[in-house]
Amino acid sequence: MANIPVEITARHIHLKQSDFVKLFGKNRQLTVLKNISQPGQFASQKVLDVIGPNLTIKNVRIVGPFREKTQLEITATEARNLGINPPYHVSGQLKNAAEVVLKGPAGKLKIKAAIIPLRHLHLHFNEAKRMGLKNGQKISVMIGQKRKLTFHEIVVRSGENHKLAVHIDTDEANAAGLKSCSYGELIK
Ligand SMILES: [Zn+2]
Questions:
Q1: Tell me, what's the pLDDT at 188?
Q2: What are the pLDDT digits (tens) for 141-183?
Q3: 164, 169, 171, 172 alpha-carbon torsion, rounded to 10°
């Protein structure tokens, strides 16, 4: 039964507040463009250019609110185009993260914080319990129609502020022939 929401996550940046000030200047606000599915998270109106050794990706969206660590999440294709080789990590882990330069209206900042996010399932504690899933466990979900694909190694991330959704990146969505958000089937 296809009943798990699947959302496609495009490249984005999380910023710690001090880095935001360096890039945008003082007295600027991380203003909301629109709320996204995970409670409290929003796409901000602010964007930055990401500069790699090979090219620049312009206007990469910042996702708020501020975090403890600055982090760039991109796909494997984007990493190759930029000319960097980031590790696959769950969000928040930055071990051996790749280096890029962020460019904003007030300045540039070299960061060692580019990762390719591991595909993951967000859900609330209670829902995890109901579905018999544990935080950190890996599951499989079948997604798509004409290019139907089963994704394995989807990391379960349960918590107070998580809402049920599988997050895959744009490379993965393309591989499964998915153009917008959809539903998948959980295969434990
Ligand atoms: Zn996510």
A1: 73
A2: 999 889 999 999 999 999 999 999 999 999 999 999 999 989 9
A3: -20
Ligand 1 centroid, distance to 117 Cα (angstroms): 9
Question: What spacing in Å lies between the alpha carbon of 150 and ligand 1's midpoint?
Answer: 18
Q: What is the DSSP string of 76-131?
A: HHHHHHHT--PPEE-TT--TTPEEEEEEETTEEEEEEEEEEEPPEEEEEHHHHHHH
The answer to whether the predicted template modeling score (pTM) of the entire model surpasses 0.90 is yes
**How many angstroms does the Cα of residue 121 sit away from the middle of ligand 1?**
7
Q: How many residues does the chain have?
A: 188
Instruction: Name the amino acid, one letter, at 106.
Output: A
Average pLDDT of span 56-66: 98
